[in-house]
């Protein structure tokens, strides 16, 4: 595999003039301030991935579908193929270092005839997916804070405080506004938050990995951690291969958002090298740290049914309950467990900052190419060279998407298994939502639930589905064009994969194709309206709307990326 500093678009390190010249070759003038180095570029992607948060909030699904074996060993399988996606993206990023990223790549690789349509569909999948990702990142933070407060005030069984839906939405909106304010700062200050996110994810994971096994008085055996396969999921699914397939997906959800390095690239020095390195290193380090953190958490899992039980003190949030129990047994108090959970929560907060940063740069680039309604408004930059208008567009859209769950005040969970129904509990939606993970399809949390407002359930399912599969589709489309229509015409940048490029690219394409199928499988049997997997509906809706708008309107005026400089 070659990773050389030569080829089309190569520049000398730190040469801002060369970056400007390369951007001009791609058809754009420099409007954003180049204040990021390779470490800062990496930090934004690493902060969004935030494996502490990813592992923590998907852990319930991992325990339910396969348990320790599907998580610890499945992580390694997912890491390999996800690495192929990241490597292919990095190679294309090096060739086309522009904030448009994925949709621009598709336009350049699909061929002249198909370029506008390819760019349009890729861009809208990426943009809508990022809006949903921003929404669910902050919403998952609210839920984790709710669990911390619940445990700190006595727990679900001790009269602990449970906020109303209006308080939850108010806090969610406040977090979004705070993230908007941070992203309104000049890039040098925003870069500081990116560095803090990278530091927090590294140091936090290091502290927790050491602390968790040391504190626990009862620990799982090595054999249990790597070989125990849980088939008692209570979802009516008994086939081991099926369970394993669903369990593998939980690892995939923890590695998403690394396209941020591409979207921040017009603010990065030595762009065609720093951007690809940011993608690769963020994914590689997240993979390693995430697996170690996952193993450490699993070492304190000794009673899977209890951790998944919505009747425990953490209302069924497995990781929070496990940490709380471990510290309580050692010291007679669970405060240490709350502190550990708080470390994860602050990591999610910093991920939210990076989400808005990446989302706003994508929106800025897309509006620069006139692909968004009122593009002339969103394309404007402030005197600090920040795309201020689209930052606040991201905040507003994310909050509106959160309103889709406004009516889900209570749910009724039926604990089903192969045995007759024994009991039925009433809990608030906030007890369930911790299992939703900020970019996870609904199967992560569905435990054969009956919801008072089906419309609200469907809306939230649609949001998290678009945030996950929508992003992966936008990742793989330019890779697909790279290995097909542009197989012979592609001109690599300083970072390239050499003779392995096509093989790695096809591995990435086939992996995402497989994920698309797995995401769409039923997650419980018998299938009913209260456990139906709405992922195909949600993602199909985005596809239908994007293609429909193209056929009816956009094909008459959208011609792909627009040159805004004199060539």
From TrEMBL:
InterPro entries: AA/rel_permease1
Topology within the bilayer: Multi-pass membrane protein
Gene3D superfamilies associated with the record: Amino acid/polyamine transporter I
One of the record's GO cellular component terms: membrane
Keywords associated with the record: Amino-acid transport, Membrane, Transmembrane, Transmembrane helix, Transport
GO molecular function: gamma-aminobutyric acid transmembrane transporter activity; L-alanine transmembrane transporter activity; L-glutamate transmembrane transporter activity; L-lysine transmembrane transporter activity
Localization: Membrane
Transmembrane segments: 38-61, 73-93, 139-159, 166-186, 198-216, 276-297, 335-359, 390-411, 458-481, 502-525, 537-558
UniProt keyword Transmembrane present: yes
UniProt key word Calcium: no
GO biological process: gamma-aminobutyric acid transport
Record family assignment: Belongs to the amino acid-polyamine-organocation (APC) superfamily. Amino acid/choline transporter (ACT) (TC 2.A.3.4) family.
PANTHER family: AMINO ACID PERMEASE (PTHR45649:SF32), AMINO-ACID PERMEASE BAT1 (PTHR45649)
Protein's recorded name: Amino acid permease
Taxonomy of the source species: Eukaryota, Viridiplantae, Streptophyta, Embryophyta, Tracheophyta
């Amino acid at each position: 595999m070659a990773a050389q500093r030569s080829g089309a678009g190569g520049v000398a390190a730190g040469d801002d003039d060369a970056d400007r010249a390369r951007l001009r070759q791609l058809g754009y003038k420099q409007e954003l301030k180049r204040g990021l180095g390779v470490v800062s570029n990496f930090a934004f992607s690493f902060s969004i991935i935030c494996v502490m948060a990813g592992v923590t909030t998907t852990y319930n699904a991992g325990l339910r579908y396969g348990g320790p074996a599907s998580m610890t060993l499945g992580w390694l399988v997912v890491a390999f193929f996800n690495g192929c996606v990241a490597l292919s993206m990095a190679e294309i990023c090096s060739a086309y270092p522009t904030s448009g990223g994925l949709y621009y790549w598709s336009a350049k690789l699909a061929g002249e005839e198909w370029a506008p349509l390819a760019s349009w569909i890729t861009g809208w999948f990426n943009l809508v997916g990022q809006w949903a990702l921003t929404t669910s990142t902050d919403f998952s933070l609210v839920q984790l804070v709710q669990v911390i407060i619940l445990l700190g005030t006595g727990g679900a069984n001790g009269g602990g405080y449970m906020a109303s839906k209006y308080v939850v939405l108010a806090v969610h909106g406040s977090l979004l506004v705070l993230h908007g304010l941070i992203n309104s700062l000049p890039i040098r200050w925003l870069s500081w938050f990116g560095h803090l996110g990278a530091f927090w994810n590294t140091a936090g994971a290091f502290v927790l990995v050491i602390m968790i096994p040391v504190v626990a008085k009862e620990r799982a055996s090595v054999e249990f951690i790597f070989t125990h396969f849980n088939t008692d999921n209570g979802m009516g699914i008994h086939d081991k291969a099926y369970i394993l397939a669903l369990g593998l997906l939980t690892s995939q959800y923890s590695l998403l958002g690394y396209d941020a390095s591409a979207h921040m690239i017009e603010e990065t020095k030595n762009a065609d090298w720093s951007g690809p390195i940011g993608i690769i290193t963020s994914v590689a380090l997240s993979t390693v740290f995430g697996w170690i953190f996952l193993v450490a958490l699993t070492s304190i899992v000794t009673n899977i049914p209890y951790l998944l039980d919505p009747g425990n003190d953490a209302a069924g949030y497995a990781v929070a309950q496990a940490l709380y129990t471990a510290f309580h047994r050692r010291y007679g108090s669970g405060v240490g467990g709350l502190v550990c959970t708080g470390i994860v929560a602050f990591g999610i907060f910093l991920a939210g900052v990076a989400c808005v940063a990446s989302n706003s740069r994508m929106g800025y680039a897309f509006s620069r190419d006139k692909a968004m309604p009122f593009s002339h408004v969103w394309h404007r930059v402030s005197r600090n060279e920040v795309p201020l208008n689209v930052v606040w567009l991201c905040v507003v859209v994310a909050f509106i998407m959160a309103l889709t769950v406004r009516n889900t005040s209570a749910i009724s969970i039926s604990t089903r298994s192969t045995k007759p129904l024994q009991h039925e509990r009433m809990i608030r939606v906030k007890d369930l939502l911790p299992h939703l993970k900020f970019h996870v399809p609904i199967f992560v949390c569905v435990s054969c639930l009956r919801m008072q407002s089906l419309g609200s359930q469907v809306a939230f399912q649609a949001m998290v589905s678009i945030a996950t599969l929508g992003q992966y589709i936008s990742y793989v489309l330019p890779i697909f064009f790279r290995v097909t229509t542009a197989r012979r015409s592609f001109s690599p940048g300083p970072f390239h994969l050499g003779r392995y490029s096509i093989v790695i690219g096809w591995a990435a394409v086939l992996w995402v194709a497989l994920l698309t199928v797995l995401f769409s499988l039923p997650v419980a049997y018998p299938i009913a309206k209260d456990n139906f997997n709405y992922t195909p509906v949600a993602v199909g809706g985005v596809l239908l709307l994007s293609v429909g708008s193209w056929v009816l309107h956009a094909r008459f005026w959208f011609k792909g990326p627009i040159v805004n400089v004199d060539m």
